[in-house]
Amino acid sequence: MSYYRSRSKRSKRTKEKSHPSIEQTTKVEKVSMALDKNLSAIKTNLGDSNDVVVRRFNINKDTKAALVYIDGLADRISLQDFILKVSMSNSNRTDQDIENNSVSKKSINYLKEQATSIGEVKDVTNFKDTLGAILSGDTAVLIESYDSAIIASTRGWEKRDVSEPTTQNVIRGPKEAFTENLRTNTSLIRRKIKDPDIRIESKTIGKHTNTDIAIVYIDSISNKKVLDEVRKRIDQIDIDGILESAYIEEMIEDSNSSPFPTIINSERPDVVSAALLEGRVAIIIDGTPFVLIVPALFIHFFQSPEDYYERSFYGIIRVLRYLAFFSALLVPSLYIAVTTFHQEMIPTTLLIDLAAQREGIPFPAYVEALIMEVTFEILREAGIRMPRAIGQAVSIVGALVLGQAAVEAGLVSPTMVIVVSITAISSFVFPAYDMAISVRILRFGFMTLAATFGLFGISIGLFLMLLHLCSLRSFGIPYMSPFGPVNFTDQKDAVFRFPRKLLSTRPRLINQTNTKRQNNYRKKYGRENS
Question: What are the subcellular locations of this protein (predicted)?
Answer without folding.
Answer: Cell membrane; Membrane
